[in-house]
């Protein structure tokens, strides 16, 4: 999309991208910006980049894009400049305050429409209507309501609104880690993330598919997006799997199933891990430690299923010309940025500080090879790519602000837990199933990070009320929020895999759904096994881990269907797609 901009627009886009890198790096390392500037600058630049990049479809309406950019600058600037005064007159805003709020809310909706699509926008509009006409709702969810202008004012200025938790998390953590991923890729590390597992396991039973799992774990831990992971690593691994003998729809399904594991794998875990830390008050380093074992079990389950799928059909890959040890000796330094940011966060430094040093380490490492060196031009290019990648989630801040603010205003946050518990009859098993259903439906039209935040706000209290510890409750919601990536009918990551594999989309989607089954087992383990979230004595935790590892192997073995051919001494049917 960047290539469709004219020369002036490209320069403007690059300048704003570099400013984002500079401002938030300075804020993370040297002097934190005041709250209004910290979130305000992120929101205004995100909106301006969106209207610059996601053009109006009718050429002569390009002037509207520039008008929206100017309005974004004015309304966000108004919030930042009048921040203290707005806090003092909260509940007694002037007419100008209210008009600015209405424009700010509408701009946020339009930004989301351009990037995310109409479904997400419709949800935002429904929430506004619910805020206005709350008195006409059923008694269970009724509230006094307010005027349209009054609701917009609450959404725009309150701490739960547009400049609330989503904007704060994106500005504080996610943007810098998305930028870190762009710089890491520019340094040449992505090739290492594929070459190393290819040499290590590519020649074994199901080797190319196992490469997809390992590469997705390595690259996915910093990409922050299951779809980006599927497209980037899948462009190499899916053709490799097909060449080895996997059916196209199976090859296309394995990659997205492996890719969503990157959302659970430290050190980055997408945006969800940072939101979890913000909501729970638990340090991100602790969230990382809790997430490691479940993430490894997820990849282990996919790995085992792939192994038996390949064993049934006797699929092996080709041996790499260069050994894994040789590649590791030659390019081990590409692991330094990941190890560095992980170590910094574990010893107590802020994620933002760790991300900035990670970016610096990527720039230094890029100079090891002449063809990957990041000079001034490379710095601008990586900044632009990172900023462009951040728009996918950044575009949601306005509508997320609407949803969270209206839920707070109406009091539904407080009553939703009671509603879910009543429907489930106080049973944890049914409560988790209801949350899974709600998350899947929400994920059909909302990005997974947004689905997690929205669901967590209303569902976590229900889980904690039933005795689940707070972090485990958030993990349940976070894992379930990823299901829309691989669960039909709307499974974008699976469809992306099908496109690369040139396979039937629905067969690919159901294959991906099969290989990702641990995604649905883990929430119940979080709910019923405290040791799974490191809650309990050392002995209890170790015992739980050993039993879960054994159970995961057996679970994956059963789902693979290999036992059927062994038990009945059957030969598999010939492969047909």
UniProtKB/TrEMBL annotation:
InterPro entries associated with the record: DctM (IPR010656), TRAP_DctM-Dct_fused (IPR011853)
Keywords, sorted A to Z: Membrane, Transmembrane, Transmembrane helix
Record domain TRAP C4-dicarboxylate transport system permease DctM subunit: where: 103-531
Transmembrane region(s): 12-30, 36-54, 63-81, 115-133, 165-184, 256-275, 287-308, 338-368, 393-417, 423-443, 450-480, 518-535, 541-566
Any Pfam family hit: DctM
Top-level division of the source organism's lineage: Bacteria
NCBIfam families in alphabetical order: TRAP_fused
Protein known as: TRAP transporter, 4TM/12TM fusion protein
Native organism taxonomy: Bacteria, Pseudomonadati, Thermodesulfobacteriota, Desulfobacteria, Desulfobacterales
